[in-house]
Design a protein that fits this description.
The protein folds into two domains: 7-38; 40-86. 83% of the residues lie in helices and 0% in strands. It has 86 residues and is mainly alpha-helical.
C-alpha cells in the first residue's frame, strides 16, 4: 500500500466537509418539494458507514503489513549477524 502521506488527514477532512456540504445542498430542495421528507438520506448514511469501514480496514491492513515487514527485517538482520560471527 505504500508509506503514509502526511497530507492524508487534512485531505480527508476536506473531502468530508465537501461531502457534507453537497448532501446539505441536495437535501434542502428535496425537503422543500416533499414537505420535509427526505427518504434518501438513510442511503447516504449507509454509504458513508460503508466507506468509513473500508477506510478503517485499509488502515488495518497497512499496519499489519508494516508489522510483518518489521519482523521480517529484524529476523533477516539477526540471521546476517549470526552468519558473520561464524
Amino acid at each position: 500500500m505504500g508509506c503514509a502521506d502526511p497530507h492524508g488527514a487534512p485531505d480527508a477532512l476536506g473531502f468530508l466537509t465537501l461531502g457534507v456540504g453537497i448532501v446539505k445542498l441536495a437535501a434542502a430542495p428535496a425537503a422543500n418539494a416533499s414537505g420535509g421528507d427526505t427518504q434518501w438520506i438513510p442511503i447516504g448514511v449507509v454509504a458513508g458507514g460503508f466507506a468509513f469501514t473500508l477506510v478503517l480496514w485499509a488502515a488495518l491492513v497497512q499496519e499489519e503489513e508494516r508489522g510483518i515487514s518489521a519482523k521480517v527485517e529484524s529476523t533477516r538482520s539477526s540471521w546476517r549477524s549470526r552468519s558473520r560471527s561464524t
